Amino acid sequence: MTYERDIVRHMAGYVPGEQPTDSGIIKLNTNENPWPPSPRVIDALATVSAESLRRYPSPSAAAFLAEAATLHGVDTDQLVATNGGDELLRLAITTFVPPGRPIGIAEPSYSLYPILAAIHDSPVHRVALDDDWSLPAGFPDELNAAGVPLTLLVNPHAPSGRLLNAAAIARLADALEGVLLVDEAYVDFADPDHDVVSLIAHHDNLMILRTLSKGYSLAGLRLGYGIGPASLIQPIAAKTRDSYSVDAVADQLGAAALADPGTARASWASVRRERQRLTDTLRGWGFGVPDSQANFCLAQVPTDAHRSAASIYAGLKHDGILVRHFDTPRLQDQLRISVGTPAQNDALLESLQRQLER
Ligand SMILES: *Cc1c(COP(=O)(O)O)cnc(C)c1O
């Protein structure tokens, strides 16, 4: 006898990238920031008191929201803190999508989106990206025709790293009849003048997802947030969100992280430099690599390498280097490589070069 809903019985669960316990492995597979978090975060951790653990945390994660409001120049009622960005995705679906109505996505993108849609009993309306991973011209019209109340768009795009500029996001928000959630999980690594947050003042259907997992080196903390007009944010913050999904430790440590942007910014600058080096080197070896504004590169294996992406993935793993290979029709000849420290990237390139010579 099984008791779960049919939809749950028939769906596949999210498959996370491997998380080996061996610390000698060079992990370039799950887009973590290769640099440590701010020392101020570790200081804040040391001051967590027994009393703050005995009591329930601030329901809104007030300390964190105050720092985020300062950082972005918005009001705290335009922000909601969540248990990782992933929780915000789930809450956006719960809040804006009547069960059974379709959720709009571009394909390929974050593999969690269809899973969250399935749990909600919603079909997914998928629009295939063009060959260069750009959005097809008819994207908003197609989603409007399908009656999509919520579109999830990752920008910079995963897994290609391609960035849609703010003007294009503004046009998309104007054109879409439903809510546009721009998933900016990787935006910290984009060129610094890219700014979508200022658009929320003029677009009442535009919401932004941010996370401390990537840019602030805090994937283990589980802290993300949404930015948007209060009319979009407050139904989540005041109604659909769990009362205490952000714990007292995440509230304090998240605030400490945003209060010390210098450490994080230095890591972003390093990632940008190394991203360029990886891109240039891989292109020099014949790989197809789109311009990335994220902390990873998507590398298409050259056909004259006479090696499949899957076998290169396995060869790298044999050398103690993990990257990501997606076994789907459009991605099976590609490797997604997170940008590491210079030493990690050297090791990656050395192993890769050996594989290609074989
Ligand atoms: C990492 C990521 C998120 C959010 O991750 P959290 O760790 O839950 O904050 C959201 N979208 C994409 C595309 C991501 O890669």
UniProtKB/TrEMBL annotation:
GO terms for MF: histidinol-phosphate transaminase activity; pyridoxal phosphate binding
Residues carrying N6-(pyridoxal phosphate)lysine: K214
Cited Pfam families: Aminotran_1_2
UniProt pathway annotation: Amino-acid biosynthesis; L-histidine biosynthesis; L-histidine from 5-phospho-alpha-D-ribose 1-diphosphate: step 7/9
Protein name: Histidinol-phosphate aminotransferase
Listed cofactors: pyridoxal 5'-phosphate
Stated family: Belongs to the class-II pyridoxal-phosphate-dependent aminotransferase family. Histidinol-phosphate aminotransferase subfamily.
Sorted UniProt keywords: Amino-acid biosynthesis, Aminotransferase, Histidine biosynthesis, Pyridoxal phosphate, Transferase
Boundaries of every Aminotransferase class I/classII large domain copy: 25-352
Name of the gene this protein is made from: hisC
